[in-house]
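User: Show me a protein chain along with its predicted structure.
Assistant: Here is one chain, sequence first, then C-alpha coordinates.
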Amino acid sequence: MIFFFLIKVIYFYILAICLAILEIQIEGVDGWAAKLPAWRVKVGSRLDKLYKKIFQHKELTGYHLALNIFLLLFLHWPFVWSWQWNIWAELEILAIFVLFTVVWDFLWFVLNPNFSLRKFNKSNAWWHKKWWGWLPVDYYLAVLFSMLLLLPETVAINPVEGTFKILALLGINLILVAATVIFYPKAY
Protein backbone atom coordinates (compact mmCIF):
# COMPACT_ATOMS: atom_id res chain seq x y z
CA MET A 1 0.00 0.00 0.00
CA ILE A 2 2.80 2.41 0.91
CA PHE A 3 4.68 1.51 -2.29
CA PHE A 4 1.69 2.50 -4.42
CA PHE A 5 1.41 5.81 -2.58
CA LEU A 6 5.07 6.55 -3.34
CA ILE A 7 4.44 5.76 -7.02
CA LYS A 8 1.49 8.19 -7.00
CA VAL A 9 3.62 10.96 -5.49
CA ILE A 10 6.37 10.48 -8.08
CA TYR A 11 3.78 10.27 -10.88
CA PHE A 12 2.25 13.57 -9.78
CA TYR A 13 5.70 15.16 -9.74
CA ILE A 14 6.24 14.08 -13.34
CA LEU A 15 2.82 15.55 -14.19
CA ALA A 16 3.83 18.80 -12.46
CA ILE A 17 6.98 19.04 -14.58
CA CYS A 18 5.04 18.37 -17.79
CA LEU A 19 2.35 20.88 -16.89
CA ALA A 20 4.90 23.52 -15.90
CA ILE A 21 6.66 23.10 -19.26
CA LEU A 22 3.35 23.24 -21.14
CA GLU A 23 2.30 26.36 -19.25
CA ILE A 24 5.67 27.99 -19.97
CA GLN A 25 5.00 27.40 -23.66
CA ILE A 26 1.52 28.91 -23.33
CA GLU A 27 2.31 31.91 -21.12
CA GLY A 28 5.95 32.59 -21.93
CA VAL A 29 7.28 35.55 -20.00
CA ASP A 30 3.82 36.65 -18.85
CA GLY A 31 2.69 34.75 -15.78
CA TRP A 32 -0.85 34.23 -14.55
CA ALA A 33 -2.31 34.34 -18.07
CA ALA A 34 -1.59 38.07 -18.18
CA LYS A 35 -1.62 38.28 -21.98
CA LEU A 36 -3.78 35.30 -22.86
CA PRO A 37 -7.16 35.93 -24.47
CA ALA A 38 -8.90 34.39 -21.47
CA TRP A 39 -12.06 35.82 -19.94
CA ARG A 40 -11.68 37.49 -16.59
CA VAL A 41 -14.15 38.02 -13.82
CA LYS A 42 -15.41 41.58 -13.48
CA VAL A 43 -13.32 43.34 -10.86
CA GLY A 44 -15.32 43.98 -7.71
CA SER A 45 -18.01 41.37 -8.46
CA ARG A 46 -19.04 38.89 -5.77
CA LEU A 47 -17.22 36.09 -7.54
CA ASP A 48 -14.09 38.24 -7.85
CA LYS A 49 -14.18 39.09 -4.14
CA LEU A 50 -14.79 35.47 -3.10
CA TYR A 51 -12.05 34.09 -5.34
CA LYS A 52 -9.53 36.70 -4.21
CA LYS A 53 -10.37 36.01 -0.58
CA ILE A 54 -9.79 32.27 -0.98
CA PHE A 55 -6.82 32.42 -3.36
CA GLN A 56 -4.66 35.19 -1.91
CA HIS A 57 -5.91 38.05 -4.12
CA LYS A 58 -5.28 36.28 -7.42
CA GLU A 59 -7.39 37.09 -10.46
CA LEU A 60 -9.81 34.42 -11.68
CA THR A 61 -9.29 33.74 -15.36
CA GLY A 62 -11.08 31.35 -17.68
CA TYR A 63 -7.75 29.74 -18.45
CA HIS A 64 -7.04 28.84 -14.82
CA LEU A 65 -10.62 27.80 -14.08
CA ALA A 66 -10.81 25.49 -17.11
CA LEU A 67 -7.36 24.03 -16.48
CA ASN A 68 -8.03 23.27 -12.83
CA ILE A 69 -11.45 21.75 -13.53
CA PHE A 70 -9.86 19.61 -16.24
CA LEU A 71 -7.11 18.48 -13.83
CA LEU A 72 -9.59 17.58 -11.09
CA LEU A 73 -11.72 15.62 -13.56
CA PHE A 74 -8.61 13.88 -14.88
CA LEU A 75 -7.49 12.94 -11.38
CA HIS A 76 -10.90 11.45 -10.61
CA TRP A 77 -10.88 9.33 -13.75
CA PRO A 78 -9.75 6.17 -11.87
CA PHE A 79 -12.89 6.41 -9.72
CA VAL A 80 -15.07 6.55 -12.82
CA TRP A 81 -13.15 3.76 -14.50
CA SER A 82 -13.29 1.36 -11.55
CA TRP A 83 -16.52 2.62 -9.96
CA GLN A 84 -14.77 2.31 -6.61
CA TRP A 85 -14.81 5.49 -4.58
CA ASN A 86 -14.29 6.06 -0.89
CA ILE A 87 -13.70 9.10 1.23
CA TRP A 88 -10.11 8.10 2.09
CA ALA A 89 -9.11 7.81 -1.56
CA GLU A 90 -10.83 11.14 -2.25
CA LEU A 91 -8.97 12.91 0.54
CA GLU A 92 -5.70 11.37 -0.62
CA ILE A 93 -6.21 12.53 -4.22
CA LEU A 94 -7.16 16.03 -3.04
CA ALA A 95 -4.12 16.20 -0.71
CA ILE A 96 -1.82 15.21 -3.54
CA PHE A 97 -3.55 17.68 -5.90
CA VAL A 98 -3.22 20.62 -3.51
CA LEU A 99 0.51 20.03 -3.05
CA PHE A 100 0.82 19.32 -6.79
CA THR A 101 -0.45 22.85 -7.56
CA VAL A 102 2.35 24.37 -5.46
CA VAL A 103 5.02 22.16 -7.02
CA TRP A 104 3.70 22.86 -10.54
CA ASP A 105 3.66 26.61 -9.87
CA PHE A 106 7.17 26.62 -8.42
CA LEU A 107 8.50 24.52 -11.30
CA TRP A 108 7.08 27.12 -13.69
CA PHE A 109 9.64 29.55 -12.26
CA VAL A 110 12.48 27.03 -12.06
CA LEU A 111 12.07 25.77 -15.63
CA ASN A 112 11.03 29.04 -17.28
CA PRO A 113 14.03 30.56 -19.09
CA ASN A 114 12.30 33.95 -18.81
CA PHE A 115 12.22 33.77 -15.01
CA SER A 116 14.50 31.36 -13.11
CA LEU A 117 14.92 31.47 -9.36
CA ARG A 118 16.66 34.85 -9.48
CA LYS A 119 13.34 36.41 -10.43
CA PHE A 120 11.25 34.38 -8.01
CA ASN A 121 10.21 37.28 -5.79
CA LYS A 122 7.28 39.56 -5.05
CA SER A 123 8.13 42.16 -7.68
CA ASN A 124 8.48 39.71 -10.58
CA ALA A 125 5.81 37.22 -9.55
CA TRP A 126 3.19 39.95 -9.12
CA TRP A 127 0.28 37.49 -9.00
CA HIS A 128 1.59 36.16 -5.69
CA LYS A 129 0.50 39.12 -3.57
CA LYS A 130 1.59 38.00 -0.09
CA TRP A 131 4.99 36.55 0.71
CA TRP A 132 6.49 35.15 3.87
CA GLY A 133 10.23 34.86 3.60
CA TRP A 134 11.25 33.55 0.18
CA LEU A 135 7.92 31.95 -0.65
CA PRO A 136 4.38 33.10 -1.38
CA VAL A 137 2.00 32.68 1.56
CA ASP A 138 -0.29 30.47 -0.53
CA TYR A 139 2.52 27.88 -0.79
CA TYR A 140 2.55 27.53 3.00
CA LEU A 141 -1.24 27.42 3.14
CA ALA A 142 -1.40 24.74 0.44
CA VAL A 143 1.16 22.56 2.24
CA LEU A 144 -0.82 22.90 5.47
CA PHE A 145 -4.12 22.16 3.72
CA SER A 146 -2.59 19.14 1.99
CA MET A 147 -1.47 17.73 5.34
CA LEU A 148 -4.89 18.44 6.86
CA LEU A 149 -6.58 16.47 4.08
CA LEU A 150 -4.52 13.39 5.04
CA LEU A 151 -5.06 13.88 8.77
CA PRO A 152 -8.52 12.21 9.03
CA GLU A 153 -7.14 8.97 7.59
CA THR A 154 -4.15 9.22 9.91
CA VAL A 155 -6.37 9.58 12.96
CA ALA A 156 -9.20 7.21 11.98
CA ILE A 157 -7.43 4.31 10.26
CA ASN A 158 -3.69 3.99 10.74
CA PRO A 159 -1.59 6.64 12.48
CA VAL A 160 1.73 5.14 11.34
CA GLU A 161 0.75 4.79 7.68
CA GLY A 162 -1.00 8.17 7.65
CA THR A 163 2.01 9.92 9.16
CA PHE A 164 4.23 8.16 6.61
CA LYS A 165 1.97 9.39 3.78
CA ILE A 166 2.18 12.98 5.00
CA LEU A 167 5.97 12.84 5.38
CA ALA A 168 6.41 11.02 2.07
CA LEU A 169 4.21 13.48 0.19
CA LEU A 170 6.15 16.44 1.50
CA GLY A 171 9.59 14.83 1.56
CA ILE A 172 9.59 13.24 -1.88
CA ASN A 173 8.33 16.44 -3.50
CA LEU A 174 10.97 18.46 -1.66
CA ILE A 175 13.73 16.06 -2.76
CA LEU A 176 12.53 16.02 -6.38
CA VAL A 177 12.20 19.82 -6.50
CA ALA A 178 15.69 20.19 -5.02
CA ALA A 179 17.09 17.74 -7.58
CA THR A 180 15.38 19.64 -10.40
CA VAL A 181 16.81 22.94 -9.17
CA ILE A 182 20.30 21.46 -8.80
CA PHE A 183 20.40 19.65 -12.13
CA TYR A 184 18.48 22.03 -14.37
CA PRO A 185 21.18 24.35 -15.76
CA LYS A 186 18.91 27.36 -16.26
CA ALA A 187 17.31 27.26 -12.79
CA TYR A 188 19.41 30.24 -11.71
